[in-house]
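User: Hey, quick favor. My workstation is busy. Could you predict this chain's structure for me?
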Amino acid sequence: MDEDGAPDNPGSVLYQVPIRTGQKDNTNLSVGFSATWSRPLDKKLQKLCKDAAAANINLMQQVNANKRLDFEIARLKNCGELMKAGIRFTPGTQYSKICADVQVKGVNFMVPHIHSIPSTNASDLGLPIETGEMKK
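Assistant: No problem, here it is.
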């Protein structure tokens, strides 16, 4: 500082003091492994957790099965109503497969049945009956 009390070189380094730290360059390579084994102290809680997980999985599977059943019933109903109305996809097209397994009685499925045909005589038909040899 000068006699005026202001620093001569503000912001610059005025001096350096060497300090010994003992720090040196170091390279290290190590290999190791770790293993842990744990045993639950309360097996009741572990069993409850497994039972709850199994119940939750069963519930999700049942919900999925219910949704699939709802879908199939809706498909059956809609395809059947459309077939009754005479509306269907052209056979062989991409969407004709949607209703391919739906059967509507009297529309695209006939119940197996038998018709009885009464036997009739020629006289019942009002035709003349000829017997004997044919005339030449």
